[in-house]
Each structure stands twice: as structure tokens, then as C-alpha cells.
Amino acid sequence: MVIRPAMEKVYPALTSQFVLLMLASSITSQISVEELTAVAARVQSETFRPFEAYIVVAVAYLALSLLMRAGLWLFGQMVFTRQRKLGSTK
Amino acid sequence: MIDGGLNAYHLQYLLWGALWTIGLSLIAFIGGGLAGGVIALCRISPIKAVRWATIAWIQLIQGTPLLVVLFLCYFGLSIMGLELPGIVAASIAMVVYVSAYLGEIWRGCIESVPRTQWEAAECLALSRTQRMRLVVLPQAVRIGTPPTVGFMVQIVKNTSLASIIGFIELVRAGQLINNSIFQPFLVYLLIAILYFAICFPLSLWSRKLEQRLQFGSRAATPSANAT
């Protein structure tokens, strides 16, 4: 009974935390995990165009975080309907 | 602890790196604080264009990892013909990063000053500047201090990323030592301890401030409920 309203309360904050977590995953490139930033590092070491490589990656991360935020918001709208039913969304 | 080559010079070098970590954190905090103040005020500006531009800026910085911002500053500025040392590029990136986050934190603090205070100030015929300066900001500072100190912990930890563009702070110093004595676990353990020694007092301070200022429980009373 408590978990659901509690989840509903923390969900927006949790959403931001998930997005931050996704962004923080870029650090794993430093211990040679093959993710977006690591690929950028490889591209720039092959082409010697670091700025272009990282700008593309920055845009990719930006798109990813916006998409993720939109997706999580939609998910929240679908799952947490209680407050809207009570008419107290403000 | 002195079994394979770790000696007093290494420790001294690590402490030297820790000093640079603190230095970079201070630069980031002071620069980012100044820029963040401007951003917080722009974010609630009555002019729509300013407000939207600030929102776009904040989304841009908060939507990209600090690592990428750091690379962009480092490589982007050198493309423009400025050959920058690591410290300058790292400082710029940290200031940009901190300004977006602190700006948003402080915007929240300003907006959580109870609505009635804003209205009372307006009823006293104070101009917008006077209202901000005399009524809202003094209260917002009280609300904002604990989260700001809390965010300082994040700043200190995030300066570790500056190691990858060759700026010699705590992590980079550790990497260099590790290259000569090949004991990564020991070296990184020491680094972790040093970071903890810097950050733990800050978190304690933040918690203490939070208890002292007691905003959390005051705001919960219905009379002071902000929208």
C-alpha cells in the first residue's frame, strides 16, 4: 500500500538519476569498455579529427538523454495514474 | 604498506596531486558559482527569450557527460589555435558543467521561497531587483546552502576526469606512480582514501547545515506551502 504512492513520489527524481547514470556510463570507456565514448576515442585516433568525433558523440548523448527522459516520462504517465484520478496532479 | 616500492616520495606526490584536485575544485566552484548565479537568475527572467535560451543551455550541458564536455573544450579550443595547458581546458569544462547544475539547483531554491513572500514584496511596491535582493535571495541562500555544499562533493569527485586530458591531479598522479611501481590496487586504494578524506567532511558539513537550517520540515507546514 505504501510502496506505490512512494514510488510515484520519487519517480521524477529517479528518472533524472537514471539519465545521470546513463551519462556517467561514459566513464567506463576509461577501463576500455566498448561504448559510445570509447568508439569516439578510436575514431579520433584513426582520423585525427578529435573535435568532430566528440561533437557527434555529444549530440548522440544529448539525443539519448532526451529520448530517455521522454520515454521514462511516458512510462510514468502510464504506470502512475493514481494522482490524476484523484485530481491532484499539481 | 611499504612492501614493493611505494615510498614517502610517492605519498608526497599523491598529496601534491590532492592539492591540485582541491585547487581545480575551488576554481570550478567559484567560477561555476558565479556563472551559475547568472544562470539561475536568467532561468526565472521575465523575458521569455532569455528564459528559453537558459533552459536550452542547461539541457545541453546536463544532457552530455562531463567527459565529452571536457574533450570538446580540450580539442575544440586547440582547433581554434589556442594551445591550452590541461589546467585551463579542465577549468573551462568544469566551470561550464558546474554552472549548469548549480544554476538549476539555485533556481529551485529561489522558487521554493514561499509564494507569499514574493507577493508581500510586490505589495510593498518593491521593484523586481529590490524584491530579489532584499526578500527572496536572503531566504533562498538559506535554503540553498545544504544542497550547494552537497554538490561540492560531486565537483571534487568529477575533477578526477581531468586526469584524462593530462592535468596532473590526484588520479593522474596515481596513474603515474602506478606506471613505475605496478601496484594498481594499492595506489588506487590510497587515492580512494584521499578522496574520501576530502569528501566526507563536506558531506558531514552538508548534513549538519541541513539539520540546522531545518528547511525540509519547515516547508512541510501547510501555511508555508509553495505551489
List the helices and strands and how they pair.
The complex is a heterodimer of chains A (90) and B (227).
Chain A: H1 3-24, H2 36-47, H3 50-79, H4 82-86
Chain B: H1 8-43, H2 48-62, H3 66-79, H4 86-111, H5 115-123, H6 128-158, H7 170-181, H8 184-213, H9 215-219
Helix pairs in contact in B: 1-4, 1-7, 1-8, 2-4, 3-4, 4-6, 5-6, 6-8, 7-8
Which terms summarize this structure?
heterodimer; A: 90 residues; mainly alpha; 4 helices; 77% helix; elongated; B: 227 residues; MetI-like fold; flat; disordered C terminus
Short description:
Chain A has about 90 residues and is an all-alpha fold. Helices cover about 75% and strands about 0% of the residues of chain A.
Description:
The complex is a heterodimer of chains A (about 90) and B (about 230). Chain A is mostly helical and about 90 residues long. Chain A has one domain (about 5-10, about 20-85). Chain A is about 75% helix and about 0% strand. Chain A has helices at about 5-25, 35-45, 50-80, 80-85. The longest helix of chain A is centred in the C-terminal third of the chain and has 30 residues, at about 50-80. Chain B has 9 helices and no strands. Chain B has helices spanning about 10-45, 50-60, 65-80, 85-110, 115-125, 130-160, 170-180, 185-215, 215-220. The radius of gyration of chain B is 21 Å and the shape is flat. In chain B, α3 packs across α4 (about 85-110) and α4 crosses α6 (about 130-160). Chain B has one domain (about 10-225): Orthogonal Bundle (MetI-like fold), CATH 1.10.3720. Residues about 220-225 of chain B have low confidence and may be disordered. By secondary structure, chain B is mainly α. The interface of A and B includes residues 26 and 90 of A.
Overall SS class of chain B: mainly alpha
CATH domain class of chain B: Mainly Alpha
Low-pLDDT regions of chain A: none
| Poorly predicted tracts of residues of chain B | 220-227
The shape of chain A is elongated
Q: Helix amount of chain B, in percent?
A: over 70%
Chain pair sharing the greatest interface = A-B, 21 and 18 residues
Main sheet specs of chain B: none
What does the radius of gyration of chain B come to?
21 Å
Q: How many structural domains does the protein architecture of chain A include?
A: 1
Our measurement of the CA-to-CA distance between the termini of chain A, rounded to an integer number of angstroms, reads: 22 Å
CATH-defined topology of chain B: MetI-like fold
Helical region count of chain B?
9
Summarize the helix and strand pattern of chain B as letters. HHHHHHHHH
Count of DSSP strands of chain A: 0
What's the end-to-end separation of chain B, in Å?
Answer: 57 Å
- Residue fraction in strands of chain B: under 5%
